[in-house]
Amino acid sequence: MPLIISLTTMDPVFVAAAFAALVIVYRVYHRYTRISLADVPGPEPASFIMGDIHKRQRRVMLPGFGGPESKAFFPLFKGCAESMSNKWMDIINTSKDQSAVINVAAWLTRATLDAVGEAAFDAHFGSIDNNESALVRAYTNMMTDVFASLSDGQIFFQGVSKYIPLRILRYLGETGNGPRLLRMREAGSVISTVARQMVEDKSEMLLQGEGSRDILSLLGGCTGPFRFSKSDRSIVKANMDADAKAKLTEEEMIAQMRTLLLAGHETTSTTLSWALLELAKHPEIQSRFRAEIRETEATMHKRGDAEFTIADFDRMPYTAAVIKEVLRFSPAAHHVHRYASQDDILPLSRPITTRFGGVIHELPVPKGTRIVASIAAYNRNKDLWGEDAHVFNPERWLNGAAKEKKTTSLGVYSNLMTFGGGVRTCIGWRFALIEMKAFLTEMVGNFEFALTDQSERVRREACMVMIPTVEGEVRNGVQLALRVSVALRTEKEY
Ligand code: HEM
User: Fold this and answer.
1) Which pTM does this prediction carry?
2) Which member of 71, 293, 391, 427 has the lowest number of beta carbons within 10 Å of its beta carbon?
3) How high is the pLDDT of residue 434?
4) H-type helices in 405-484, by residue range?
5) pLDDT of residue 45
6) Cβ contacts of residue 298 below 8 Å, gap of 6+?
7) How far apart are CA 308 and CA 366, in angstroms?
8) Each residue of 426-451: pLDDT tens digit?
9) Which of 74, 143, 419 to probe ligand 1 with, by most ligand atoms within 8 A of CB?
10) What is the Cα–Cα distance from 111 to 316, expressed in whole angstroms?
11) Separation of alpha carbons 35 and 147, rounded Å
12) Most confident of 3-7, 51-55, 321-325, 379-383
């Protein structure tokens, strides 16, 4: 009571000032005693937003990327790999010493573009035969032309772009005339035209009852979440008749196709390129890998088959180990972005020392926080992968070392972060695995890969994916030149 009485007799200005001072003291006390993300040392983040639109679009596409669907594409991937290796064989046969220096990364970009075209859209781009088509020209070196070697000004703009309203950013993207923007718009326009044409062609085919197993057919055909209506001549319009929760507008469909075309070939070709570089650096690993391929071919011939089947891979543990190690060691996408949609607290597997010397065991993540999660750092974290985390060593997948230290279980495949994780996990990860098996067994079965004088200068250039380039020659785009020769077979191995 005496306190209340004395407060009521005090000068109100003094009371207000005292109250404000108390609030400030409390705020300062709270700021320095509470754990804050701001105290954790780390880089500045950026992000994109999750939401219902994403959920709906993903639900529409998911049926096309299941296990059986991806496995069914194996012969098709093998066909694309064979077309490429036939071309390499021609180059080698016409060279003087039965070997040739080939920019394997550039070939793989085109071969995997053909593979995603056939599998996802039942479209025959013919990129392996014709590297001058509009689509191939649109994609060739697009990532390095647009994203490589940014100037200080461009990096600064990227940093501040998160404070600029989306509408203004879009306007700048549509009207700006810098060479990178022009390149991106030109490529985008070619790719959209091809996508629209594919939708039209597929609509016509489905009308004729010729839908196949490709993803576009699943979107517009009878096995997907949409029903193709004969009274309507377009997949997109048919899709508009479908359940409102699971429909794509025309623009969304074209956008999805553009995403699939890009995400479905740059990532796989890049990973395959890094695989070949590691095999060239480690001839003993390459030989062991080839020996397993030969052994499987022998079994296959014995039973009267001429081609690998998907089941053969279950008997190829070293192949699986090489692929896992490539995915760990050289993840195509080096980081993913997240945006916290609600307040959360992350428990830490290892305490962090804050910038003020405090030790924290959990991390508050306030709503709205932008997060950059490093795939490359997770995949080479010594706590998880051991002291040799920075060494390319497929053996770790066979001797149990890869599993030994795991306290976490992350992602969709072998505790690797390569395909991301959670609601935005790579939709095409099974597709990619089957494709990589098809390409690697074809390439390593037929060819030997060795380093060249240029190999020392090969660098990963972060252009959304880690593109192989040559130091000092980034403007020349994707480059990974290896010496390729025919892998000899003994009499018995034919
Ligand atoms: C080795 C090959 C591949 C790698 C390393 C890879 C990696 C990734 C990563 C890291 C993400 C982001 C996940 C996240 O934010 O958490 C992603 C998303 C995506 N990937 Fe892949 N990817 C590969 C192959 C493919 C293929 C072959 C396709 C399609 C044919 C594909 C289609 C997509 C799509 C559509 C998304 C967006 C998914 C969503 O936001 O829901 N990817 N991929």
Assistant:
1) 0.85
2) 391
3) 96
4) 429-446
5) 44
6) 492, 493
7) 51
8) 999 999 999 999 999 999 999 999 99
9) 419
10) 24
11) 36
12) 321-325
Structure tokens at 435: 């494709």
DSSP calls for 150-184: --HHHHHHHHHGGGS-HHHHHHHHHH--SHHHHHH
- H or E element at residue 462: strand 458-463
The 10 Å CB-count burial string (b at 16+, else e) for 182-199 is: eebeebeebbeebbeebb
Q: Which atom of ligand 1 is nearest to the CA of 265?
A: 27
**Each residue's pLDDT tens digit, 9-26:** 667 777 778 777 787 776
Contact status, residue 216 vs residue 235, Cβ threshold 8 Å: yes
Binding-site residue positions:
426
434 CB within 6 A, ligand 1: no
Pocket of ligand 1 contains residue 116 by CB under 6 Å = yes
**209 with 203: CB under 8 angstroms?**
no
Distance CA 98, CA 92 (A): 5
| Beta-carbon contacts of residue 126 (< 8 Å; ≥ 6 apart) | 114, 133
Interatomic CA distance for residues 279 and 273, integer angstroms? 10
